[in-house]
Automatic annotation (TrEMBL):
Source taxonomy: Eukaryota, Viridiplantae, Streptophyta, Embryophyta, Tracheophyta
Name used for this protein in its record: Neprosin PEP catalytic domain-containing protein
Domain Neprosin PEP catalytic: start-end pairs: 163-415
Source organism: Aristolochia fimbriata (White veined hardy Dutchman's pipe vine)
InterPro entries attached to this UniProt entry: Glutamic_endopeptidase, Neprosin, Neprosin_propep
Domain of life according to the entry: Eukaryota
Amino acid sequence: MKKKPTDLAGYRFGRAALVVVFLFLALSHIGEVEARRPWKNGGGSTRAHKFAVKTMKSADGDIIDCVDIYKQPAFDHPALKNHTIQREPDVYPSGFEPVAEKATASVRQLQRFEKCPQGTIPLLRNRLEVDYSAGHHVLARSGGRAAHMDVDAYGTSSTASESSPNAGHEYAVVSTASGGQYYGAKAVINLWNPSVEGEREFSLSQLWVLGGSYTTNDLNSVEAGWMVHPYLYGDSQTRLFIYWTNSAYQGPGCYNLKCAGFVQTSTEVAMGAAFNPSTYGGEQQELILTVFKDKSSGNWWLMVGESQVGYWPASLFNTLADSASMVQWGGEIVNDRTTGRHTATDMGSGHFPTEGSGKASYFKNIQVVDGSNALTSPPPGLGRVVTNAQCYDMEIEAGGSSFNYGGPGLSDECP
């Protein structure tokens, strides 16, 4: 039977309404998928790139955006609402000499792009879509965690058991005793390009400034160093990184500027930028890092060489609100054992500390900032934390201010 015009109109209206409903549901589903999909560069970082006033390509192929300093990802953090940027520390530790004009060797290593204009900061575009907001515990099963050990283990070798907070992570780390009072740390870190086997594994060398504990889930940590992390960066280059947590790696916290928190002030250092590594038996490259608390503002500042990079605002922390209770320096890898054996991921240079200078990776001139706000040698009785000496080991030099560390991982002795 032929439909009347009024019937056809109703039929067409019904079809149109049905299409609208399906379209709404489809768009809702797309929105849901988009909400679950890892965002490129992290949520805050993605938005910040939209405010770029200049874009450059570094010598090693990285894309760098110069972003308005007031539109950087840090200010997405609720604790930083109405935050006033501190342009430089009010108080430096005694023994530290800041350099205002001349780039230091550590900064020149990173500066493979034109300096950003005043009032902006360099922001690295990542090469992969990674959910940086997922946290340290998701990215490579919690990247760069502080080495967990018992107080009675100091001065001896400590191991991380499978039930510890560090299961899957292996260390060659030097640590102060817990319960101290520290206002920063410094180190000269040898630069290498270790081989990383697993897709979600990494190899890093860094310093940790810590307050609180794993036991009470209030561990606060500010961290800086270099790492090779293919999943995070999309390549196997040796790159500068920072990290922070205020919840024992269980919640908020983030690498570099991929999430809110760290406030960058430097126009010339890009977080995540690549380094030239050392050559085995040849020229050695170094990174000098200092983290210290500005006792006037309470902010924790990061220096690369003698150049200020930025700070972790005091408002981010609780157990680091006054001082740190522990400092650590050393190497860490993730061993996923996805093939049923130990990983072949290198730590440091990939060679054992017994091979010595020019071949084994090192930390030298490690220091702490004490209660008088002075850079000084670490206290006596440093702890030596080595997870498995057959895989990665450490040798502390007399005096305790320098050490060699590292190893190749998988071998007959490290199955």
